[in-house]
């Protein structure tokens, strides 16, 4: 079978390799992979920043955003059957089985020794066939077969938004105005989710106002601004909710000054940029005086995937053409190397294993 592999920490190591078709164990399911999405984590594995192959393997099969069809099941598998369309949950509990992992929340693991398909010590799904522990498979209805590849990133957005709502139960709060920074997959999905929920959403990113990203924001009823023409500090308004999904440290810092009193800021980005700031005192004082909250959110668990399924149906019903526009290009596995040469206007590159 074809598999896209990497050998971190080597740089530019992604390649297509021919491997034996795996065999499921008693608690596993064999998946015939339909599509795999490529994201920042995959590109950073190719850049050698991180990524850990499974024990005893010189490489790791990449790809954690996936949708597939159950081809075979182990003798103890009861929750899925042959023919089911499924999306695998990425993260697995830590070896120590900490309190959170034990209670179905490995995304909140306290030891840091969790495993992740395609990232940390478990092979991913960028291959014709893959095996996964059946209890970590989420069944997807037939009508979401094409959109299922977006369920993993959408689950991260669902987690961040659900947690910010939960945190704000600390007070009486009637939010209206939302800022989303970044127009990659997470930023656009956050824009869609929050627009669906009736908020006034402004998306600010470094893309042209006539770009496909800006058009998607407007199609969802949101407002779009090009940050290069409208720097965040120049905005004459404040926001109840800010979702920072750009991954730019400068943008993240600037967001802190745009919260209304009692507002909340969710960081979904991962920040490699080194940012010096001489004004932390003013930023922190403003957060304290305004009873404001800033928190980070990463990964997700089953309940967030299930929330994402409902949202995908709502998006498809209300904005029927939007999900297709999130796909910038589909590549066959033999052309997968092109996915690691990202373009500024790109949203999501999909590897289609059925072609």
At the first level of CATH, what is the class of the largest domain? Alpha Beta
What is the count of helical runs? 9
- Count of domains: 2
Mean pLDDT, nearest integer? 95
User: Biggest sheet, in brief?
Assistant: 7 strands, mixed
* Rg, Cα atoms, Å: 20 Å
Q: What global shape is seen?
A: globular
End-to-end C-alpha gap? 13 Å
Characterise the protein shown here.
- It is globular and about 60 Å long.
- By secondary structure, the protein is of the alpha/beta class.
- The strands form four sheets. Strands 3, 5, 6, 10, 11, 18 and 19 form a seven-stranded mixed sheet that branches. Strands 14-13-12-15-16-17 form a six-stranded parallel sheet, with helices on both faces.
- β1 (2-6) and β2 (15-18) form a beta hairpin.
- The protein contains nine helices and 19 strands.
- The model has no long low-confidence stretch (mean pLDDT 95).
- It has two domains: 2-139 and 327-352, Alpha-Beta Complex (Quinone Oxidoreductase, Chain A, domain 1); 155-296, NAD(P)-binding Rossmann-like Domain (Rossmann fold, 3-Layer(aba) Sandwich), CATH 3.40.50.720.
- The longest helix is centred in the middle third of the chain and has 17 residues, at 151-167.
- It has helices at residues 40-46, 99-102, 151-167, 185-196, 212-219, 249-256, 280-289, 302-318, 322-325; strands at residues 2-6, 15-18, 28-38, 60-61, 65-73, 85-88, 91-92, 115-117, 121-122, 129-133, 137-139, 177-181, 200-205, 223-226, 239-244, 259-267, 293-296, 327-331, 348-352.
What labels describe this entry?
6-stranded parallel beta sheet, Quinone Oxidoreductase, Chain A, domain 1, 19 strands, 7-stranded mixed beta sheet, Rossmann fold, about 350 residues, alpha/beta, single chain, 9 helices, globular
